[in-house]
Amino acid sequence: TTTVVWLRDDLRLADNPALRHAADDGDVVVLYVLDEASAGVRSLGGAARWWLHHSLAALGAAVEAAGARLVLRRGAAIEVVPAVIQDARADAVVWNRRYGGPEREIDAAVKTWAGEHDVEAHSFAANLLHEPWTITTGAGEPFQVYSPFLRACQRAEEPRDPLPAVRRLAGPDVASDDLDEWGLHPSAPDWSAGLAEAWEPGETGATRRLTQFVDGILDGYDASRERPGVEGTSRLSPHLRFGEVSPFQVRAAVAGASPREDRDAFLSEIHWREFNWHLLYANPDLATVNHRAKFDGMRWRRSPGDLRAWQRGRTGYPLVDAGMRQLWQTGWMHNRVRMITASFLIKNLLIDWRAGEQWFWDTLVDADAANNPANWQWTAGSGADAFPYVRVFNPVTQGRKFDADGSYITRFVPELAGRDGSALHEPWDHDPPADYPEPMVDLRRTRRRALAAYDDIGASG
Ligand code: FAD
Predict the structure, then answer these.
(1) Which intervals hold domain Photolyase/cryptochrome alpha/beta (predicted)?
(2) Of 375, 391, 402, which is best to mutate to test ligand 1, by the most ligand atoms within 8 angstroms of its C-beta?
């Protein structure tokens, strides 16, 4: 048999059921398609394109070391995948499943084509611990609330152990594009130095990160994950996003780790990822449509100038600015600071969550179709199991609590270096540096304005 293995968000040789199945079965063609042509598929943001470039370079080297060649093609998958199957004279095509609406339609169309052309097609579960249709309420509906969802996952069939890596591959030679010509890597200007310093895309980097986490950071995770100034979380999110490591591998690596509360806190975050993907599966429009319809009546402000100040980290609120600059420089932001910066945009600036979601989509290396919109809707209060809308984060109080010594703020806002206490957290009252902006809004007044706007749409009901 010759099988085309169509890789997508699963750029790894270990724990890859589709690849494993094909390699056990005979000859293999490993294919990646850059699909920016199919209807409904959202083009990757700039930071994610950078990541993809390097991840594919790493994958190409690993496939070559195993004895084959990674085939790269560009175009609408419903045309490209059949063309590669025909070029390779393959009898079968396999892939690991995706859960977004347009992606599922494409996969179904390829499956139909295969059926009509006497080509076998098989799909596998690889990127979620539980398939969305297996975790439902008693009434067979998708969960809208996280805690019962988590309990249902814990009661469900235990996720499988990870599969061993594929080490030997053989197959026919098929023409491939040149990765460098895809233009995923930024040029003119190349703004990616900060990303390259922070990350090692690819399966080797993912494995290294997971080992570092399990051997060190996991101990104490439950407390240190709230402190953006320390390396207290796994930073696995972009590796999970591109499937350089699977949740099955992550789960197996932390099994048995102690202390138990740290492991449980970490696994609970992994299940937020699951919850959001299940939510997207049930709601393909998650990035564009308010999950709670009454939010359609919300009177958001339109202010390109305010949006830009937020994007650039020039709001005058040190913790917000530090977060937005961390995002711009490194392609990632600490979770607590994501919540605070998102709350600031939505509540203090009263700007539509979709504008923030789009900025994160463009700048995060871990941006994905489920977790980004779901977390934005959660913060806005328009989402499933949303954050109580009456809670408006105060960035000054949050900074004092979670970055008391300012190690995070001063790393990304050098204008405030050497300051502490009020001079750091409320610089406007203490001989403010000339090059640091004045606060762009009054926190108390804008909080009241937000609560009034939420009341107007009856958000509490
Ligand atoms: P850890 O604390 O080590 O957690 C381990 C893993 O659990 C993460 O890698 C991630 O896969 C998952 N996880 C952790 N927190 C969450 C969460 N709140 N929701 C869903 N999964 C979670 N995460 C993304 O992966 N992609 C996004 O596009 C994304 N956008 C976000 C936007 C906003 C406004 C907010 C508030 C959060 C967003 N998150 C997103 C969730 C979270 O901030 C990141 O997953 C986390 O910061 C990644 O860092 P880590 O790997 O060190 O996390």
Answers:
(1) 1-129
(2) 375
